[in-house]
Amino acid sequence: MAQMIGENMDCKVHAFTNPVVALENLAGISAGVVITDYSMPQMDGIEFIRRATKVTPKSAFIMITGHDLDIMKDDLDALKRLKLRLQKPFGWRPLAEAVLSVWPGDDSPVLREE
Prior knowledge:
Blueprint: H1 2-8, H2 19-26, E1 33-37, H3 45-55, E2 60-65, H4 73-77, E3 82-87, H5 92-102
Parallel strand pairs: 1-2, 2-3
Helix pairs in contact: 1-5, 2-3
């Protein structure tokens, strides 16, 4: 899906399969939006966002999940930079539109027309 986003938006996409490696690299990336899954090895998406906000101070966050996270509403509400949750399954276009809707500032990327 990261490849589809990269091919259809005029912004650079960095994809990581390991949250620890992603955290190690985030400080060197000027990310407008960080997308994370809730279920990951080594930490969940809530912990990832808590840690990531310390190294990428201006990024907005989107969490994708196949789980019902309503039981964690208080934990999610405490993540002030978590702007949107997307329930699986979805395609690349709804994800791209979500990225555009939460992009901070006025320099949001453009979704290329098909």
